[in-house]
Amino acid sequence: MACRTYPLKHKANKNKTETIVAMFEPYRDFAQDIAGVQWNHFFATGRFSKYIDNLHHIPSMLTERQKQTCRDQVVGILESFVSNRANDFKRIVFRSSSPEDVKLQLFYINKRHLWYHYGDIKMPLFLDGERVKGEFVLIGSEVRNLARKIFARVLSRHRRPTYQGINLALDAKVASILPREENKATEFDYWLKISTLDKGHPTYIPLQTNYYFEDVDGELKNFCFVNLKDDGNMDFCLVKDKNRLPYRPMIDELSLDWGLCVMFATEFGDLYGRNFFDQLKRYDEILTELARGRQKRKLNTASKRYKALRGKIRDYIKNEINRVLNRIARQYRPARIVVEKLDFRNQELSKRMNRLLSRCGRSAIEAKLQTLSEDYGIEVEYINPAYTSQECSICGWTEENNRKSRDGFVCRNKNCSTMLHADVNGARVIRSRSSTPLANPYVSREAIFNALRDQFSANVERYPCWPNKTVDRERRNSPAGAGAPRGAAKSKELCGNNVP
Fold it and tell me: Which residues, in sequence order, are bridge partners of residue 424?
């Protein structure tokens, strides 16, 4: 199951709206205060805690139940932040020159989040990759101090979460969802009862459902989100525990290459979202001109019109990504999707647009792939993106000059000279790296290049005439190395099929 949020229209009057809006400022102030308490607890014990009960000493207009709800939300945000920093820690250790036994101990500390654990740490003993039952290794103080220094370095390179703009995440202690009662207020489908700053006087928000929300097969949870927009309006979102949908895969694996001139390319030669980049450039011109005009007049760039345009661009990026990935999933129905760790920058776009695309695009793709995984059980693998655009998917020759244009790939190996659409070639390279050591996203670019060079040399020794059309014919006809949809391999053999 997977929890999803669904916004519903509300019919709250002005008085009720103002009552809810009044909760945001003290809620956000308390979130900032409790975050400081949680960080102190983290550096002292190595953990955040939802069980710190001494909240009454923090002055606030919130009730005790509202304080507890806010604390739980803050702890969730901090744990997510620290989880991302643990990935950064892993990347640093993996690329370091430390001895293997030290790396193993550092990985153990990182996995258990024991950077600020000041007691003894015992790690299970492994011999030849197998755990020795009942045997442990005591991690020394030098390794523990090293782990603490690495994590402190990681923290210093990232800003901690701020809470000036967080919204209300209300659980059963503060809010309850009441269904419509017969013979009472039949115009509204749900009533959202929310505890306000005025203790003992909750407010009731009338909500209207929609067919999309009711059509979702899942259990309604007693939890809601209240989002405050820049214009002062609010969204009320209910949560459902959605059941997994029936799904029978047609192919084992599908690799996708992300681009801007073409949003996604498959290993079979399909190109999805061909107009995506052109539309982004048009939006970028409007956004840049609007920002330039306000800067000339020495006005704040973030005007109401500017914010509305940014919101429109975010919606366009999210909608296009969701549309394309939905179509890919329906067309191929893969059991597994392989994509590269994504970079969303392009030299033809302004810094402002690149920043917007990087934040929104990455989160939209990861969220959609997570949705496909939760709804249909599709596995998702992220691989190292190093040299995927420069490696030839046929012979393995890797060179910067292989790709001289946005969509053209020509292998510079004279024995190969493969010509492909660049994104299709990238998708095939991604597939060839799937479930191999080259897929590890923590391996450095230098290590990837050395491995590609050694791999190419080994292929040349194995096939003296490598590459040639006879040896590679099977791979050309089935780039995935696994069965394509029945009746689809032949039609997708050529590269560059135009798919909107």
Answer: none
Is the peptide bond preceding residue 485 cis, with omega within 30 degrees of 0? Answer: no
> What is the predicted pLDDT for the residue at 83?
93
Among the candidates 193, 221, 242, a domain finishes at 242
Per residue in 409-441, pLDDT (tens digit) is 888 888 888 888 888 888 999 998 888 888 888
Size (the chain), residues:
500
pTM attached to this predicted model: 0.78
pLDDT tens by residue, 190-211: 889 999 998 888 999 999 888 8
Axis-axis angle for helices 304-332, 276-296 (nearest 10): 170
The answer to whether position 249 is within a domain reads: no
Which parts of the chain sit beneath pLDDT 50? 467-500
In-domain check, residue 128:
yes
What is the tens place of the pLDDT at every residue in 378-403? 999 988 888 888 888 888 888 888 88
Q: How far apart are CA 30 and CA 60, in angstroms?
A: 7
Closest CA to 147 of 209, 198, 96, 84: 96
By residue range, what is the domain housing residue 205? 2-14+168-242
User: How many structural domains are present in the chain?
Assistant: 3
Do 383 and 426 lie in one domain? The reply is yes
Cα distances (Å, whole numbers) of residue 67 to 161, 185, 224, 378, 481: 18, 32, 16, 39, 55
For residues 283 and 425, state if they share a domain: yes
Q: Which of 156, 190, 222 is the last residue of a domain?
A: 156
Does 208 lie in the same domain as 343?
A: no
CA distances from 199 to 18, 61, 202, 310, 365 (A): 16, 10, 7, 39, 42
Cα separation, 259 vs 265, in Å, equals 8
